[in-house]
Design brief:
The protein has about 375 residues and is an alpha/beta fold. The protein has 15 helices and ten strands. It has helices at about 15-25, 65-70, 85-105, 110-115, 120-130, 135-155, 160-165, 170-180, 185-190, 225-235, 250-260, 280-290, 300-305, 310-320, 345-360, and strands at about 35-40, 45, 60, 75, 195-205, 205-215, 220-225, 240-245, 295-300, 335. The strands form three sheets. It has a four-stranded mixed beta sheet. The protein has a four-stranded mixed beta sheet with strand order 7-6-5-8, with helices on both faces. The longest helix has 18 residues, at about 85-105.
Length: about 375
């Protein structure tokens, strides 16, 4: 099934002028769309080759390495233009940078990361975001938050978890804890104990909707047939938090959520979302939020965009773990054969959401 979400990182370039600009910028996103050869050295390269740029009058452009070799040129030993698919090389490069970020004690600068990748800062930033769905700094904070959560739940003290996660002092960790964890570190260690979650329910076009709010924003949007099962689901998501009705203070948030579910998303943009998950889940959910209304993607396409083409099942699991219905539009993800796949709140609701957005019912 064609997808409005599909993109090709190796983009075609219209003419020699645009190709030359890609060479000057060492544009990795143009790798695979052409090679350039240098008459004086009889060598051909990728657009992103880090070698010294040649004089423009010495450059010839070819569609691929076969054409360049047929004209008497040999492949560059530095950028190795004939080794592997560009997308694979880009994925490996981003994966290597991700490992470096995960091991760093402080957030590396964009300039430092770009130098490690052998790219300009702007093109590295674009490539990293294309594969991970987040900025390098956001990835660093997501890795750190995931590590701290895991260590606190495994029983480490707050101080030990802070040092293990790369904070140089416990005071720095406490200063950043609310932003990093979404709650106090002690609450994470005790399964959310001490956190207060306010909730409200209302009728909507899809049945009953429950909106839950933490100190940071809307932390759950749940759909169902009546209030009682939704409250049970909320307790399962936050087993040790204190749950209580939002009352009048939750009216604005609830109205925004109902408007979102009923196909009027304008109000939600004014409210913060408290999105919690693993690093991988956050990457998947960020990709889902880029799918436009009326568009769809497959689990395999999302996995490919993440640079993990074999992770379609893991993408499906991340969709199933989504607790913010419609705000994170996991209903826009289908199986590769066009079937609906699963949906946490029922296939009938998924079908109706897609019908409403696309004007037709997808295959099931």
């Amino acid at each position: 099934m064609p997808s409005t979400f599909q993109r090709t990182l190796a983009r075609p370039l219209a003419g020699d002028g645009e190709r030359w600009r890609a060479v000057l910028a060492r544009d990795a996103t143009a790798d695979g769309s052409f090679v350039y050869a240098v008459r004086s050295t009889r060598v051909y390269c990728r657009s992103s080759c880090p070698a010294r740029r040649p004089r423009p009058e010495q450059v010839r452009f070819f569609a691929d390495g076969d054409a360049a070799r047929a004209a008497g040129y040999r492949p560059c030993r530095r950028c190795r233009p004939d080794e592997g698919e560009p997308a694979v090389r880009q994925s490996e490069l981003v994966s290597r940078i991700c490992r470096f970020i995960a091991a760093a004690e402080t957030a590396p600068s964009l300039r430092e990361l770009a130098q490690r990748a052998g790219l300009s800062a702007s093109h590295f930033h674009r490539l990293f975001a294309a594969y991970t769905g987040v900025t390098p700094r956001a990835y660093f904070h997501a890795v750190r938050a995931s590590r701290v959560r895991s260590q606190l739940r495994d029983g480490l003290t707050v101080t030990a978890a802070a040092y293990e996660a790369g904070f140089n002092s416990s005071s720095r960790f406490y200063a950043a804890a609310q932003r990093v964890l979404g709650m106090k570190p002690g609450a994470v260690r005790h399964g959310g104990a001490g956190e207060e979650i306010r909730y409200a329910t209302a009728h909507c076009d899809l049945g009953t909707v429950l909106a839950a709010l933490s100190e940071r924003g809307i932390c759950a949007i749940l759909l169902g047939d009546n209030k009682r099962p939704l409250l049970a689901e909320l307790r399962g998501l936050f087993p040790n938090a204190t749950l209580h009705p939002a009352g009048a203070n939750g009216g604005a948030a609830l109205r925004a959520v109902v408007a979102l579910v009923d196909g009027q998303p304008a109000l939600l943009g004014k409210l913060p979302l408290d999105i919690r998950g693993t690093v991988f889940q956050l990457r998947v959910w960020e990709m889902l939020r880029k799918i436009p209304a009326g568009g769809v993607a497959t689990y395999a396409e999302i996995a490919s965009q993440l640079g993990m083409p074999r992770a379609a099942r893991a993408v499906a699991n991340a969709c199933a773990a989504n607790r913010l219905a419609v705000a994170i539009p996991c209903h826009r993800v289908l199986r590769g054969n066009g079937e609906l796949g699963g949906y946490r709140w029922g296939l009938q609701r998924k079908r109706e959401l897609l019908r409403r957005e696309r004007g037709s019912t997808p295959g099931s």
